[in-house]
């Protein structure tokens, strides 16, 4: 009975502040075992996308998330891992995050926006409006409302995309193999 209770406690343990970078370059089976939750698989051009959905939200440096998206190549090796945080990152998150990962390699904000074009999809009654915009980026500080924050490490890189407007408000963190492309 004790063994069964211990086994249940292990399986119900939430994934809190998991070191996501340790999953990059591993076989997808490792993530399936580690994350221990339901997932969906979708085909992609370069492999597959796995979406792991949690019944209860998890915490990552104090911010909530309820799913993890993994991109794997055709050999089932994890190339990217993304989580959407429910909030735009703040100074407290930044301090905690940099204490773990160090200072960022680059912080970029929007210098200018140029509307390229607009498409209106009339399939639905109200339609959807899709606007293509070209952004010119510049290096900024955290107090200047960055759009992207990058860390380039030896074996992986981290990108934070901060979205303050639109229906996808919050921060998206992506861990991936090092590409040195910022």
How would you sum up this structure, described in words?
- With 182 residues, the protein is α+β, with helices and mostly antiparallel strands.
- 16% of the residues lie in helices and 47% in strands.
- The chain has three helices and nine strands, in the order H-H-E-E-E-E-H-E-E-E-E-E.
- The chain has helices at residues 2-12, 28-35, 91-101; strands at residues 39-44, 47-60, 63-73, 78-85, 106-121, 128-139, 148-152, 157-163, 170-176.
- Strands 1-2-3-4-9-8-7-5-6 form a nine-stranded antiparallel β-sheet, with helices on one face.
- The protein is globular and about 45 Å long.
> Given the structure, what is the number of helices?
3
End-to-end span in angstroms? 53 Å
How large is the share of residues in beta strands? over 45%
Q: Please identify the structural class as seen in this structure.
A: alpha+beta
Main-sheet strand order equals 1-2-3-4-9-8-7-5-6
- List unreliable stretches of 5+ residues: 1-15
The profile of the biggest β sheet is: 9 strands, antiparallel
Helix content: 10-25%
* Cα shape: globular
* Rg (C-alpha, Å): 19 Å
- Average pLDDT level: 82
**H and E string:** HHEEEEHEEEEE
Number of strands: 9
Supply database-style keywords.
single chain; 182 residues; alpha+beta; 3 helices; 16% helix; globular
Summarize the structure.
With 182 residues, the chain is of the alpha+beta class. It has helices at 2-12, 28-35, 91-101; strands at 39-44, 47-60, 63-73, 78-85, 106-121, 128-139, 148-152, 157-163, 170-176.
């Amino acid at each position: 009975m004790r063994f069964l209770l211990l086994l249940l406690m292990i399986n119900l343990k939430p994934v809190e502040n998991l070191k996501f970078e340790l999953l990059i370059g591993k076989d997808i089976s490792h993530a399936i075992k580690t994350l221990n939750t339901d997932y969906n698989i979708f085909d992609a051009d370069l492999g597959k996308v796995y979406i792991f959905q949690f019944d209860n939200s998890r915490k990552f440096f104090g911010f909530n998330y309820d799913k993890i998206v993994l991109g794997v190549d055709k050999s089932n090796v994890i190339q990217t891992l993304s989580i959407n945080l429910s909030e735009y990152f703040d100074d407290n998150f930044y301090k905690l995050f940099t204490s773990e990962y160090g200072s960022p390699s680059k912080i970029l904000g929007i210098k200018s926006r140029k509307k390229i074009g607009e498409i209106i999809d009339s399939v639905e009654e109200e339609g959807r409006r899709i606007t293509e915009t070209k952004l010119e980026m510049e290096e900024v500080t955290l107090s200047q409302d960055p759009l992207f924050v990058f860390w380039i490490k030896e074996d992986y890189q981290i990108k934070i995309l901060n979205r303050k407007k639109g229906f996808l408000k919050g921060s998206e963190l992506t861990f991936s193999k090092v590409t040195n492309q910022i």
